[in-house]
Known about the structure:
- The protein has 325 residues and is mainly alpha-helical.
- It has three domains: 42-139, Serine Threonine Protein Phosphatase 5, Tetratricopeptide repeat (Alpha Horseshoe), CATH 1.25.40.10; 142-262, Serine Threonine Protein Phosphatase 5, Tetratricopeptide repeat (Alpha Horseshoe); 273-318, 434 Repressor (Amino-terminal Domain) (Orthogonal Bundle).
- It is 82% helix and 0% strand.
- The chain is elongated.
- The protein has 19 helices and no strands.
Amino acid sequence: MGDGKVNSQAVSEKELGNEAYKNRNFETALQHYGKASELDPTNMVYRTNIAAVYFEQKEYEKCIAECQTAVEIGRENRADFKLIAKALARAGNAYHKLNDLKNAVTFYSKSLSEHRDSDLVKKLVEVEKVLKEQERVAYINPDIANEEKQQGNNFFTKGDYPTALKHYSEAIKRNPTDAKLYSNRSACYTKLLEFGLALNDAENCIKLDKSFIKGYLRKAACLMAMKQESRASEAYQRALEIDPTCQEALEGYRAAVMAENSDPESVKKRAMQDPEVQEILSDPAMQHVLQQMQKDPKALQEHLRNPDVAKKIEKLLEVGLIGIR
Length: 325
């Protein structure tokens, strides 16, 4: 009966504290919550309420300490897991206010392991995203990036491409806006026959510096290795726009065009992109002419007497879509 009396007094003190809290009379609220906690030290709610006052007063370290005490009391006295989750989330909020995002994530995660709250899940995702970005930015160091690049160059020269790759990757993490680093790693991936990854790095290199010729040369080399000669010739052309005297680009462009022209499928594909060719092939009369030519090569001479048809046949011969036997 004595315990019941103490508990009812504690509840009364808490209610007085709540009233003061609503009126933002925080010092009075602290006194009442403190008294409630003295009267019933096994109830974690009073300590959580004290933490809430400290949070409003921007006394975040004190708030965290009270939340941790509340959790200890709650665990000792088998409190409802939702109450423990609430205290842990409040500590997380205090850490968030202190911009200690690592601890905020820790306490939000602990809270969610006690009780899953959808709003807190969203908050955790947002904080983790900001924390990840903070850690990425904090990791940036151009001087270390340069050291890693030199190490990568040394191993690349020795032909140890896997080790060179590790150093180039670390250099990129340390300075992710340096186009040359992506160019180096692209070359490394090419040596390792990882053409898809090499192409991706070449693309990133170009995005960062559109005037850096090596980005286009790396891209073109990857595309040649991937048998995409048409795209490779375009990349070599872009390189030649930057430097018309670049020997690698000139030779690469010639090789790409020759490879393209020697592949019937590439020739056909390129020809079909020409609007004039598309118009010729969609003409029913020309379709009939081409069918006749296929069945009887001698029919060509007859059709060439018509100037309009002759012009269209000349166009199809020019783009390599048809040949004369």
